[in-house]
Amino acid sequence: MKRRVFGIILSLSIFISMTVLPQDIKATDISSSFSALSNSTITLNERQLNANTSITTYGDINNDGNIDAIDYALLKKHLLGSDSQGINLSAADVNVDGQIDAIDFAILKSYLMKIIYSLPTGKPANKVFTNTGFEDGSINGWTLGSKNTTGATYASSRASRTGRYQLSCYAESNYVSDIYQDVTGLQPGYYYITCYVQNGGNQNSAYLYAHGTGQNKCMTAIPVTNALNTENSQQYGWTLVTVRGVQVGADGNIRIGFYSDANAKNWVNLDDFTINRESNQSQQKKFYVGGDISELTYVEDMGAKFYDSNGKEQDAVKLLADNGWNIARLRLYNNPGKGRGDGKYYLKENYLNLEDILRLAKRAKNANMAIQLTLHYSDFWTNGLTQNIPTDWKSQIAGLSTQDAVAKLENLVYNYTKSVMQQMAAQGTIPETVSLGNEIQAGMLYPYGSYNNFANLGRFINAGYTAVKEVSPNTKVILHLDDAGNSDKYIWFFDNCKTYNIKYDIIGASYYPYYTGITANKVVDFCNKICARYNKDIIIMETGYNFNKYLPNGYEGQLKNNGAYENYYESSPNGQRDFLLELFNALKNVKDGRCIGDIYWDPVMVEQNGVGWAIVEATNKADTNVVANTTLFDFNHVILPAINAYKYNN
């Protein structure tokens, strides 16, 4: 470790020349303070960490909310023996080793120069967590589990992330890596665990986990590493993995571990484990992983059956829940049917209506899933282009002035929303979240609630919000837009929400690599920006990825390619799985855990005679099923490997 730090320090003078420092500190003072460094020996003054000092962020030494040159200069003053006034000693111990020394100084410099991209955050806990970087060349402090294959889990010195050593898992034949450490002495509360990984992929399972005494295991599946998700975009770099929602009880104990059921010659490396206290201690972090099951009754009635990986027929909802799903999205239309579409197409009658959605809600709740309810306020598909007013509502506003029509629609939205919520409540299926509209970036109930009538749109949204809260105050209201990553679009929309006093709780975003053209890491940057600006959580409402480049008819489906991942994860069952592994882990890295989950679309609308995205008005026949190659079941309705991304993420 010291050799690496000394190498970094050699370029210090370059950094100093570019750094703006407070007036009372001279750059030459900092340079000269390193003249005592010789043969990798640290001779600067060491001050012991005060373990009782609470912190917000490592590196933010003056507690101003930023990590910058002022913090760097204050640390230098402290190391040279100057007055420590204004210094948060806990925040200064950036490598969390219990001492404040030249190593901390060099690490902070590396962070400011963007040589490294992260520092620990939260209350220091690593004083009780030993051998987190395996720098003694062994796994001392860790315990090999009963299932571990002899010789498959070991400390190695192959291009570690920091220092000389790392934890490596590899064997020439099929093997299991099973290693953990029990940590004690933590303050009760909520924590998250991080480590950095390199992973070649294709394991049957590979996940980082943690849990307090008597608590369920919190897990994050390890993604395959590549140039799109590693530090500095290095092909063989390191990826940050985060486990959220870890609860430490009154005993202050936690178990942290890694488990992998691997095939011959699969490999994974791990380094630099940390324990971090969540900044928000008001509630446990929960990460939702699941998908949209709104079309399930339709495809089942058309004859579709679903099978597990062994080919055994299973109830689709139970199969998904047993493999990690904890949320189901249900999209509700007012009254789908012939003559109530867009004139050319319509949605099949008796499906996606309230009766159908109530049945599906019971199935989801019986499988212990949370419910995300989306109200389309239409009889047909809605999105940025199409937001048709329900046919029945059109008749009720016919002949009214614009002012009176808006007032009537406002009342209809309120009454309809409240009625739906009351019926959901009556059968014990209160939704955890309700989305008012679907992809409403250009508004809803056109033309009255379109984007150029934002005041009207606000009235409709607030009417729905009020109705939801009157029935279930704890249900969170989502406003859902398309095009995750387009910060300008979201800022325009939600700034308008602020202007017109529009009420909502959570921001929803659709993310498809094909449509957005960006990676999961770019989505994380976007989430951090938007969550900070509006102080709201965010959820990915829609995600899709091809498991086959073509539909069964040989034509391309709705997703023509895989966008930024086209040359990384192919359109194959394993490619779909690896994309989801990367996405789920990336979203857990959103600051303070403010991304609360991801919902897949469409997981169950499988290839089946009679199933199409819509019914043709002229022929009453189903049009092409354009998402048959993006579901979580193959063309024979067998569950795909992508399900492992859900099974080992929560």
UniProtKB/TrEMBL annotation:
Keywords assigned: Carbohydrate metabolism, Cellulose degradation, Glycosidase, Hydrolase, Polysaccharide degradation, Signal
Keyword Protein transport: no
This protein's name: Arabinogalactan endo-beta-1,4-galactanase
GO MF terms held by the record: arabinogalactan endo-1,4-beta-galactosidase activity; cellulase activity; glucosidase activity
GO biological processes: cellulose catabolic process; pectin catabolic process
Membership in a protein family: Belongs to the glycosyl hydrolase 53 family.
Species this protein is from: Ruminiclostridium herbifermentans
Keyword ATP-binding carried by entry: no
Catalytic activity: The enzyme specifically hydrolyzes (1->4)-beta-D-galactosidic linkages in type I arabinogalactans; Endohydrolysis of (1->4)-beta-D-glucosidic linkages in cellulose, lichenin and cereal beta-D-glucans
EC id: 3.2.1.89
InterPro entries found in the cross-reference section: Dockerin_1_rpt, Dockerin_dom, Dockerin_dom_sf, EF_Hand_1_Ca_BS, GH, Glyco_hydro_53
Gene3D superfamilies named in the record: Dockerin domain, Galactose-binding domain-like, Glycosidases
Superkingdom, natural source: Bacteria
Signal peptide per UniProt: 1-22
